[in-house]
Amino acid sequence: MPAIPAALTAVSSLGECPPVGGCNEKRMLAMLPHCGKTFAERMKKVEVWKWCNLSEFIVYYESFTNCTEVETNVVGCYWPNPLAESFIAGVHRRFFQNCSVARHHWQDPPDGILIPLIAAPILLTIAMTGVVVWRSKRTAQVV
C-alpha cells in the first residue's frame, strides 16, 4: 500500500492532479513568491524597453506560469484560482504596467474621399455592362 501515496505525490508534483487533502492556501501563498523571484531574475536578462515584446521573454513567462501551476497543485489547490491569479496579476503590474495595447480608433474617411471610392466601381460596372450589351448587339447585326 505505500506505493499509492508515492504515486499520488508523483502525479501532483507534475501539476496534473491536486492531492486529496484539500487546498493549503497559506502554503501556496508562501511558495508562489519563489516563482515570481525566479521570473524576476530571468527578466533581468531582458532589456527593460523590450519587456512589452512577448517574443523577447516568452520562454521565461511560460516557465513562470508552469511554476505557479505546479506549486499550486503541489499544495492541493486548483490552478488557476483567485489567490494564484492575484499573485500573477501582481507580477504583471510589476513588469508590464507600461505595456498598453494601442487600439486604433477606425473611422470613415471624409465624404470627399469616400464618395469617389464608392462611385468609381459602380460607374465602371455600369459602363462595362453597357459596352458588353452594345458589342453583343453589334455582333448580331454583322452576322
TrEMBL record:
GO terms for cellular component: cell surface; plasma membrane; receptor complex. It is a single-pass type I membrane protein. InterPro entries: RAMP (IPR006985), RAMP_sf (IPR038126). Gene3D superfamilies: Receptor activity modifying family. It holds the Pfam family RAMP. Keywords: Cell membrane, Disulfide bond, Glycoprotein, Membrane, Receptor, Signal, Transmembrane, Transmembrane helix, Transport. Signal peptide: none annotated. The chain crosses the membrane at residues 113-134. One of its GO terms (molecular function) is coreceptor activity. It is found in: Cell membrane. Belongs to the RAMP family. This is Receptor activity-modifying protein 3. It comes from Balaenoptera physalus (Fin whale). The lineage of its organism: Eukaryota, Metazoa, Chordata, Craniata, Vertebrata.
